[in-house]
Structure formats: structure tokens, C-alpha cells
Amino acid sequence: MSDTIRKVGVIGAGQMGNGIAHVCALAGYDVALNDLSEERIHAGLATINGNIARQVSKGLVSEEARKEALARIVPATTLEALADCDFVIEAATENEEVKRKIFTALCPVLKPEAMLGTNTSSISITRLAAATDRPERFIGVHFMNPVPLMQLVEIIRGIATEDPTYEATKTFIAKLGKTATLAEDFPAFIVNRILLPMINEAIYTLYEGVGSVESIDTAMRLGANHPMGPLQLADFIGLDTCLSIMQVLYEGLADSKYRPCPLLVKYVEAGWLGRKTKRGFYDYRGDKPVPTR
Ligand SMILES: NC(=O)c1ccc[n+]([C@@H]2O[C@H](COP(=O)([O-])OP(=O)(O)OC[C@H]3O[C@@H](n4cnc5c(N)ncnc54)[C@H](O)[C@@H]3O)[C@@H](O)[C@H]2O)c1
User: Fold this and answer.
1) Residue 18 alpha carbon to ligand 1 centre in Å
2) Which DSSP string corresponds to 172-234?
3) Does ligand 1 come within 6 angstroms of the Cβ of 15?
4) How far apart are alpha carbons 175 and 84 in whole angstroms?
5) Ligand 1 centroid distance, CA of 94 (Å)
6) Is 51 labeled as catalytic in the residue annotation?
7) Is ligand 1 within 6 A of the CB of residue 40?
8) Does any ligand 1 atom lie closer than 6 A to the CB of residue 98?
9) 119 flagged as catalytic
């Protein structure tokens, strides 16, 4: 089973889904890309097109490989279009209800032997697996953002994930040219268990007036040698995703140290979700991001 994946389905054509489709197609997999509407799928395809073109201009990918990769990705406007996939990776909005509904609708159309993965940043793999008809072939594959550039993929086994599923996933991640680490199925796994409380603390630091957006980001870039400030990173991840992860940590670990900062909650309520809505801790409408506080 460890090398039986030929066609990959990706559900969600947002920043993660289109990145996953991009790296799968470049690695030689056939890809079917699904989202809620044709417009969103085409927006995802346009992003992939632009991102692979950038890799060509940097000499990282040949023109021929670009053309071949783009030809391998087909839009899938219905879940039925994923019926012949060997591995389907769900990368839809970070909301447990949304993901459960997708799995309930998807399972009846899949081949019995198909594997299912989720790119969730924080939700229990065991619980999501239980919403499917194949918990033994269900696994967490947590890609990092931006997918084409980031080397790591966290693999998370649910309690029912069987060894052949894990082995096939490791082979798949290696074929993508990525490095896998294994994380246990605890809220937010490893990377976000450590990263998100740091980002949440940076937002508290802003909320309490300890520093401005600029001073907090400069402090962490130059004082802790982070490549990006924590507020810039929050905008990049998406503030809705950041809030969902903090809520999963807060509820899942029942510890007040994970309480989402009220300012983060307010920004999400305002629809200020970061780069994807052109406003978060920075305003992205002009040529250069402008700090908002
Ligand atoms: N943003 C990050 O840095 C990051 C990093 C790692 C993992 N993740 C995880 O990846 C997943 C996607 O996050 P994102 O940043 O790409 O979000 P996003 O908002 O950019 O994209 C989500 C996409 O899912 C689509 N969608 C929603 N419901 C759907 C449905 N029922 N069927 C098909 N498509 C549906 C939306 O239309 C949207 O295009 C989340 O689980 C998130 O936690 C995000």
C-alpha cells in the first residue's frame, strides 16, 4: 500500500489547499481540486499558476515541468468528481462542523481503499476520523504555510490509524520532497501548540499597550531573530485560523493560559482576518503593509 497513491483529491482551494495541489502536481501526482464554487476553484488555480510561474522565473522549476504540473490539476466542482482519488486531503476552513459535513458527504463516493487526510491545524484527528467510514485509513497531514516553500509536514495518527496508512503517508510526503515529523494527537499538535500561544501573547502585548504593532514585530525580528514578527505572521496565517486554534487549545487542554486575546476575537468579529481580507494588524491595500495600531 505504501506506494499506491496516483491521484490526490484536495478539498478547499484556499491558501493551503492550492499550495497542497501545487506541490502534489509538481511531484507528478494527478490532482482534483474542489471548493464550494467554481469561482473559488478558479481563484485557487490562478494562484497556483502565478506561484509556479514565480518558481520558473527563479530557475527552480523548468517551463516544461510547469506546463505538465498545471495539466495534471483538474477542477472538481462536486465531491463525486473525487471518486477515483487514492488519497483525499481536506484543507477547508478550520471549523469542525464544516469538516465533519465534508467527510459525511465524501465517504460514500470514495473507493473503499482510498485514504483520507486532513490538513487541520488543531482539531482532534481521532474525532474527525470517527466522522468517517474509514478511521483506520484516516490521518493528519499538517502542511505549513506557504506550502511550496515550507519544508515540514507534521503527520498525526488518530487512535485508529493503521500502520499501512502511516507508511503510505510517509512515502507520499517524501515524494513531495518534504520532511515529515510525527506528532501525537493532542490539540494543535507540535508546531501550533508552541507557535500560537506566542502569537496570542503578542496580541495581548498589543492589547495591553506594551508596544505598537511595529515595535512588537521589530522586537521579535531583531531581538529573537524571528524571520517575521508575530503580528505579521498572524496576518499571514489568517486571524480566523489563529482564533480557531486558540479556542481548540483553550477547550481541549482546559487551561486558562490559552484564553484567546479579546482583541483577536474583536478583529475576527470585524472581518479583519489579515492578508486574505487586506486588513488585519496591517493594512494591505497600498503598496506596502501599514501597521494599524
Ligand atoms: N493558514 C495557515 O497558515 C494554515 C497552516 C496550516 C494548516 N492550515 C489549515 O488548513 C485549512 C485551510 O486553511 P486556509 O488557510 O487554506 O483557509 P482559507 O480560508 O484560505 O481556505 C479555506 C477554503 O475552504 C473552502 N471551503 C469551506 N467550506 C468548504 C466545503 N464545505 N467544501 C469545499 N471547500 C470549502 C473555502 O471556500 C476556502 O476557499 C484549515 O484547516 C487550517 O487550519 C492553515
Assistant:
1) 10
2) HHHHTT-EEEEE-SSTTTTHHHHHHHHHHHHHHHHHTTSS-HHHHHHHHHHHS--SS-HHHHH
3) yes
4) 20
5) 6
6) no
7) yes
8) yes
9) no
**Residue 99 alpha carbon to ligand 1 centre in Å:** 10
Using 50, 70 and 90 to split pLDDT, how confident is the model at 171? Answer: very high
121 classed as catalytic? yes
pTM exceeds 0.85 for this model: yes
Ligand 1 lined by 277 (C-beta under 6 Å): no
What is the phi-psi region of residue 271: left when phi exceeds 0, alpha when psi lies from -120 to 50, beta otherwise?
A: left
Q: What is the pLDDT of residues 220-234, one digit of tens each?
A: 999 999 999 999 999
pLDDT category at 4 given cuts 50, 70, 90 is confident
Q: Is 156 exposed, middle or buried (0-12, 13-18, 19+ CB in 10 A)?
A: buried
> What pLDDT digit, counting tens, does each position of 251-281 carry?
999 999 999 999 999 999 999 999 999 999 9
